[in-house]
UniProtKB/TrEMBL annotation:
SMART domains: MR_MLE. Binds 1 Mg(2+) ion per subunit. It comes from the Bacteria. Residues 135-226 form the Mandelate racemase/muconate lactonizing enzyme C-terminal domain. Belongs to the mandelate racemase/muconate lactonizing enzyme family. Transmembrane segments: none annotated. InterPro entries: DgoD-like (IPR034593), Dipeptide_epimerase (IPR034603), Enolase-like_C_sf (IPR036849), Enolase-like_N (IPR029017), Enolase_C-like (IPR029065), Mandelate_racemase_C (IPR013342), Mandelate_racemase_N_dom (IPR013341). Keywords: Isomerase, Magnesium, Metal-binding. This is Dipeptide epimerase. PANTHER family: D-GALACTONATE DEHYDRATASE-RELATED, ENOLASE SUPERFAMILY MEMBER DDB_G0284701. Its EC number is 5.1.1.-.
Length: 337
């Protein structure tokens, strides 16, 4: 198997503002894994908070030697080898995992949702993200998202109620909110959640800092809405310790090291009676389509990352009437433009 990679910069349609930062671009690494004339595509997306960059991912990928693996179907063995090369580098590992899944699916001539025996009609609606911005821009973004049946609102600054009221002046679709650790006091957080419960909010993602698990457990116990772990949660070994701390988890391929571990995460979360969301970073349709193969197993999806950029180099999963829609393209379901 031959591994090739090149850096790429995603251009965002709007400035993307969270509780702690803003950006207009996201670095990614595009990967190709070739075997017997077939090419599997992969991607590493590197928003700043992950601590990865073009340089760190390139350094990691240069260490990867797949010359000893002549059979792509030895997926567990290959990905265990990749995982043990370094302790971190989750996005770098994910791009190889995605490319390998794409390659093996193409050899089999089937998409992964079929290989896993999943029903495409069971995919959830995906949210569309509204970032923190001025009232005028928030209204514009909300109108642009008219086809979506659920919106995700970034929060965590001093204008949270104003954001919700602004969106509610335009639409009455269900909302979920992502606070990105922006609330520090559990009592104030609970007051806000009760207020949001009356505004048609479905769940609250990462309301408090990941360093405050006791406060989060108290908040989850008293909250009328489900609480979802994001920044606090990275890999599969994190899940059991969050039982009772959060109502559910947000799985992202760039955190889980790819599709292989993400599917195992879903199984563990379900065994612990936890909710599951499949999410994303700002990504091309490559990584988005890979994550969408798992979406029939999930309660919610936040797979709008490719819709937030202007320079997607792939075509893959489509959002039709707000719903994640899977096709019969083999592998992860993408073609290169």
């Amino acid at each position: 198997m031959q591994l090739r990679f090149k850096p790429f910069e995603l251009q965002l349609k709007h400035t993307f503002t969270l509780a702690t930062s803003s950006r207009t671009t996201t670095p990614v690494m595009l990967v190709e894994l070739e075997h017997d004339g077939l090419i599997g595509y992969g991607e590493a997306s590197m928003p700043p908070y992950l601590g990865e960059s073009h340089e760190t991912v390139a350094r990691f990928l240069k260490k990867v030697d797949l010359s000893g693996f002549n059979d792509p179907f030895r997926m567990d063995e290959i990905l265990e080898y990749v995982d043990q090369l370094e302790t971190g580098n989750r996005a770098a590992k994910a791009c190889i995992d995605i490319a390998l899944h794409d390659l093996v699916g193409k050899i089999l001539g089937q998409p992964w949702y079929k290989i896993w025996g999943l029903k495409p009609e069971n995919t959830p609606y995906t949210t569309y993200t509204i970032g923190i911005d001025t009232r005028e821009v928030v209204i514009e973004k909300t109108k642009e998202a008219a086809e979506f049946k659920m919106l995700k609102v970034k929060m965590g600054r001093d204008n949270d109620k104003e954001l919700i009221e602004t969106i509610r002046s335009v639409t009455d679709v269900p909302l979920c909110v992502d606070v990105n650790q922006g609330w520090k006091d559990k009592h104030e957080a609970l007051d806000m959640i009760h207020w949001m419960d009356e505004k048609g909010i479905v769940f609250v993602e990462q309301p408090m800092p990941k360093e405050q698990p006791e406060d989060m457990a108290w908040l989850t116990a008293h909250s009328p809405l489900p609480t979802i772990a994001d920044e606090a949660f990275q890999r599969i070994h994190d899940i059991p310790k969050f039982k009772g701390v959060y109502s559910g988890i947000n799985i992202k391929l760039m955190k889980s090291t790819g599709m292989r571990e993400a599917k195992k995460m879903i199984d563990v979360a379900r065994a612990l009676d936890m909710k599951v969301m499949i999410g994303c970073m700002t990504e091309t349709s490559c990584a988005i389509s890979a994550a969408s193969q798992l979406s029939p197993l999930c309660d919610w999806a936040d797979l709008d990352g490719a819709l937030l950029i202007t320079n997607d180099v792939f075509e893959g999963m489509k959002v039709i009437d707000g719903k994640v829609t899977l096709f019969d393209l083999p592998g992860i379901g993408v073609v290169k433009r």
